[in-house]
Amino acid sequence: MAAGFEKLAADALPPTTPETRFNGHSMVGALKRVLVCSPRTACWHQPERAARWRELGFVHAPNFEKAQAQHEALCRELEACGAEVEDIPPAMELSLDAVYAHDASLPTDFGLILMRPGKPNRVFEGKHHGSFCQILGIPMLAKITAPATSEAGDMVWLDSKTLLIGHSYRTNDQGIQQIRGLLKPKGMEVLSAPLPHGPGPSACLHLMSLISLLDERTALVDLPWLAVETVELLSARGYQFIEIDYSERDTLACNVLSLGEKRLLALEENPKTNQKLRAAGFDVRTFAGSELCINGRGGPTCLTRPLLRG
After folding, report:
1. CB of 193 within 8 A of CB of 165?
2. How many CB atoms lie within 10 A of CB 177?
3. Are residues 274 and 284 in contact, defined by beta-carbon separation less than 8 angstroms?
4. Distances (CA, A) of 192 to 117, 230, 238, 262, 303
5. Which of 50, 151, 61 is nearest to 95 (CA)?
6. What's the rounded Cα separation, in Å, for the pair 171 and 117?
7. Which of 146, 242, 273, 283 has the fewest Cβ atoms surrounding its Cβ within 10 A?
8. pLDDT band at 204 (very low <50, low <70, confident <90, very high)
């Protein structure tokens, strides 16, 4: 053990080669490789799993066929942009939430950090990400340990050496400190951003619920919900803001995935915000997310765990 986190033994890591295909530290580079978890993999089609939808915070009982079709549309868009799509294998311990693959791990240029989600039913996901990513040739850097909690939906790379982490009900101060302890010796700065109470502990309000970086200097934001210090930090770093259409807040308008090279992937349910993005010069591709995204409160960024960006 070191600084509260568990560092993986060097001899347990797969050998790295010049062909190792992973990195981190960018939210906006051209997407080359991405991990997903389909509703089929997360067992949305199994009645005993689907029956837990209320306790997991879903709006209504999931429709597996519709959700799976929407996920397949998502994957077609990812492949059309040139990304290699990796679907994680199923496991008995996965819950409906596993489709939101972004949260359980944080890739860095040094290897994968396995998260310890603040939502108890998701704790297994970090270990599962780690096992599969080792098969993909991605080494493990460390895993976050109790009492820390951490979900990667709270983590935004502002540049290649600066990680902004939201302090939320899902990522606590101990989690932020463990990640800071991991990355500071490697020359990385870790900053903390306070998040509002919002809908409360049972809801999912991540930092990335309020900010989506679109390119190196443009951010889509839900401005009224951001803390003043976060707005000032982004402004001081030269970011220009595009505000969502606030009538589309509940349909996850702020949750937009950068595909790189001015290309974005958004939900078709948010036409007003998408038009703002197009007017700002972005190529916006869309897919329907009524069942897959809005029902479980996780949009395009939540559904994807980028492993390699250009």
Report:
1. yes
2. 17
3. yes
4. 17, 9, 18, 28, 24
5. 50
6. 7
7. 146
8. confident
Is the confidence at residue 9, as pLDDT, over 60?
no
DSSP for 266-310, written as a single string: EETT-HHHHHHHHHTT-EEEEE--IIIIITTT--TTTT-EEEEE-
Please, which residues have CB within 8 angstroms of residue 232's CB and are 6 or more apart in sequence?
Answer: none
Q: CB-hemisphere CA count at 13 Å for 137? A: 12
Number of Cβ within a 10 Å radius of residue 72? 14
pLDDT tens digits, one per residue of 36-60: 999 999 999 999 999 999 999 999 9
What number of other Cβ atoms are within 10 A of residue 47's Cβ? Answer: 9
The pLDDT score that the predictor gives to residue 6 is 75
For residues 277 and 214, the answer to whether their CB atoms sit within 8 Å is yes
- Cβ burial of 27 (10 Å; 0-12, 13-18, 19+) is buried
- The token duo for 98 is 């596993």
Which of helix, strand or coil describes residue 113?
strand
Closest CA to 34 of 287, 220, 307: 307
pLDDT of residue 202: 72
Q: Which residue has the tokens 């809801």?
A: 203
Length of the chain (residues)? 310
pLDDT (tens digit, 9 = 90+) per residue, 131-188? Answer: 999 999 999 999 999 999 999 999 999 999 999 999 999 999 999 999 999 999 999 9
Tell the residue number behind the tokens 């990195």, with chain if given. 23
Contact yes or no for 139/16 (Cβ under 8 A)? yes
The 10s digit of each residue's pLDDT in 272-297 is 999 999 999 999 999 999 999 999 99
Other CB atoms within 10 Å distance of the CB of residue 202: 10
Q: Which of 92, 165, 97, 89 is nearest to 129 (CA)?
A: 89
> Looking at the predicted structure, is the pLDDT value of residue 271 above 90?
yes
| Cα–Cα distance for residue pair 123/33, rounded to 1 Å | 24
